Amino acid sequence: MANSGTPQSGIHRIREARREQMFPVLDERQLETLAPYGQRRRYPAGATLFEAGQRHIAMFVVLSGTIDMFRYTVTGEDLFATHGRGIFTGEVGQLAGSAAIATARAHEDTEVLVIDEVALHRLVIADAELSELIMRAFILRRMALIEDETGGATVVGSRHSRDTLRLRQFLTRNAHPHVYLDVDGDPAMAQFLERFGVVTEELPVVIMADGRVLRTPSNRELADYIGLGPDPLDGRKFDVAVLGAGPGGLAAAVYAASEGLRVLVLDAKAPGGQAGTSSRIENYFGFPTGITGQALAGRGFVQAQKFGAEIAIPRKVLRLARPTPDEIALEIDGGERVTARAVVIATGARYRKPNLPNLEVFEGRGIYYAASFMEAQLCAEQEVIVVGGGNSAGQAAVFLAGHTKHVHILVRSRGLAASMSQYLIRRIEATPNITLRTETEIVELLGTGDLGGVRWQNRASLAIEEHAVQHVFLFLGAEPNTALIDGCLTLDAAGFVKTGASLTEAELRAAAWSLPRAPYPLESSRSGIFAVGDVRSDSVKRVATAVGEGAAAVRQIHALLSESERPSA
Predict the structure, then answer these.
(1) Rounded to an integer, what distance in angstroms lies between the CA atom of residue 281 and that of residue 300?
(2) Average pLDDT of every residue of the chain
(3) Which residues contact 31 (CB under 8 A, 6 or more apart)?
């Protein structure tokens, strides 16, 4: 295998045509181009170049000899690739300094070119040809590890547990390879758990490759252990801090970082925001066949990292303060504090919860706010309900129809035309296992523990029907995620952030606006704090709008930053 990057085991679901892109062999000209970015180093046979779990590792380009790539599972070590001359190590997590998910060892005496993290960022920005080749390989390798479902962290739990669903959603939406083992109905699981000293009352657990067991960890604990979380942030200074890693926030990060600004993005959950939970987005410009929300968010996430933006997940901002006129302080959960010269609020919106008794009891156990493949697996070949008449509800209904026995769409209005795109309405009408129930709403949730059924009512006839449907997907309108800034910024009557010309003189006086200029179009009632996307008042709630506003905000931030650099009169 002296000159091969072909996997020996695992990663078997990637097509042959893609393997050459996953493990490209650099030619002599390309190796010469790389030479100034790294240092030559020799390793004897059996030497370890890096280990799984290490952070801020370099990219190794094989000049002679071979490198074996291993990953660890709960059943042992797995050799999944051998790199020969011209092949390089790495995957997308490397751009952010995240923990390595594989171990590299010299198969024989080997010489490599070692390109550290800083030099790698310079390389992918400076050289378009190699950037495209490296970035494509990095992305495909991570995709392959995720699709293979045999390595990484192992989540053991029950499909009836909301914490099990939470952990799986967190790992999936953050594109971290993992395996899921369901204890329900599998007698062999008792013996497996005994091996790790786990009893069923402790589920769910996450078993790491080194054998350590995390018992019902929080998302923060899990992220920190697997190396997904950021380096310590306390005391650091940035040009721009972006709150929210949805389309608007990621767009702002990409444009700001690509223009040389120091950028920090903070999000409490995962890239993509509400859009990241969409099963398919078909009306976003440039994707005629559609794209999943997670895939779109993943591309923006990697693009921001490529240009050097730091993305901290999961990190929650608790408070904004202004210690000096030229900087804004952000207090983060865990006791950290950073400062930025400008802040972009891109916290988006969340689906509204209906006023139903015991709703929270059934969340994750029959009530869902996203319709991804994971949720579809939980209700395969069963009847489901989708509540809502917007595009997100339509996309979810069409997607779920391909996995379930029947989909009931419940809307309070008399139809879908006022709130849903026409292409989705036509698709719903053409899908035989979707029934649209207009002027209908759920009035009661039934069951103990898991959702056992629902009662819905027709608002015209007042007739109430009971149905043993155990899975309900809620896509009800949008409420702004503005809890953090309520009382800090001027909001409209619905709670969205007012910006630019929508701010009245009275509102600016009440906010103590002291600058001689008016707020920029995307600037809030506090100078230096901008709002983009769904969280902004009067914005069009579309992915394209959020992306455009994120880009536009960067231009206005440049204007803001130039103000502090002008000499005083």
Answers:
(1) 15
(2) 91
(3) 61, 63, 86, 113
568, pLDDT greater than 60: no
Instruction: Work out the burial of residue 216: count CB atoms within 10 Å of its CB; fewer than 13 is exposed, 13-18 middle, 19 or more buried.
Output: middle
| 310 pLDDT more than 90 | yes
* Higher-scoring residue by pLDDT: 1, 49: 49
Residue 3 confidence (pLDDT): 44
CATH pick for 237-350+480-565 out of 3.20.20.140, 3.40.50.300, 3.50.50.60, 3.90.170.10: 3.50.50.60
What mean pLDDT do residues 187-195 have?
Answer: 87
What count of Cα atoms within 13 Å lies in the side-chain half-sphere of residue 468? 1
Closest C-alpha to 38, from 141, 93, 128, 111: 111
Q: What is the pLDDT of residues 123-169, one digit of tens each?
A: 999 999 999 999 999 999 988 888 876 667 899 999 899 999 999 99
pLDDT reading at 8 higher than 60: no
Given a contact cutoff of 8 angstroms between Cβ atoms, the answer to whether 520 and 560 are in contact is yes
Which run of H or E residues covers position 265?
strand 263-266
Strand order, beta sheet including 39-43: 39-43, 110-115, 59-64
Contacts with 433 (C-beta within 8 Å, 6 or more apart), sequence order: 401, 404, 405, 406, 407
Q: What confidence score (pLDDT) does residue 128 get?
A: 95
| Domain assignments of the chain as residue spans, ordered by start | 16-148, 153-226, 237-350+480-565, 359-474
Amino acid at 180: Y
Bond preceding residue 204 cis, omega within 30 of 0: yes
Q: What is the CATH number of domain 153-226?
A: 3.40.30.10
The reply to whether CATH 3.10.20.600 applies to domain 359-474 is no
Residues in the chain: 569
Confidence at residue 40, expressed as pLDDT on a 0 to 100 scale: 98
- Interior/surface letters 301-311, b for 16+ CB within 10 angstroms, e for the rest: bbbbbbbbbbb
Q: What CATH number does domain 16-148 carry, 1.25.40.10, 2.60.120.10, 3.40.720.10, 1.10.490.10?
A: 2.60.120.10
- The values of phi and psi at residue 489, to 5°, are -120, 160
Do the domains at 237-350+480-565 and 359-474 have one common CATH topology?
yes
Write the pLDDT tens digit of every residue in 202-235. Answer: 999 999 877 889 999 999 999 998 888 888 999 9
Cβ–Cβ < 8 Å for 313, 93: no
φ/ψ of 174, rounded to 5, equals -100, 15
Question: What's the whole-model pTM score?
Answer: 0.91
pLDDT of residue 561: 95
